[in-house]
Hints:
This protein is mainly alpha-helical. The protein folds into two domains: 15-72; 87-140, no CATH class. The protein has helices spanning 17-40, 44-86, 100-106, 114-124, 128-134. Helix 1 (17-40) runs antiparallel to helix 2. It is elongated, with a radius of gyration of 21 Å. The termini are close together.
Amino acid sequence: xxxTAVQDFKSHRRWDPWYHFFAAPVLAIAFFVQLWHAIxxxxxxxxxxxxxxxxxxxxxxxxxxxxLKVQDRIIRLEERLRLxxxxxxxxxxxxxxLTEQQLIGLRFASDAEVAGLVQAALDENLSxxxxxxxxxxWRPDFYRV
Length: 145
């Protein structure tokens, strides 16, 4: 995605073509092909190849999961720092009550509207997706993995 592209709720999800459309499908197909071979002609070697194919698929999925989890932790930290600078009391003292998903949703809100969205998130227990849907002035994030 070009960094100059307009981003909003409908276009903010990011697809990495090398991962989503090449590596993950190839590894999944390789696993199922190898599983089929192991079923059709079982041997110690074909079973071992199936285990290796499964390990490679799991490795790819876990590597992706690890990267997303680290990114979510960074977003949580960034948003807590941002909110501490932008919010007035008593909202500032309630930053710790926001969930990780709420903080992730708030990262797209402009500085001008973030206080209202924090208040709504806390009062109405909004999900991250619900918060994103309420953002009117979108702050794009082009660095999501």
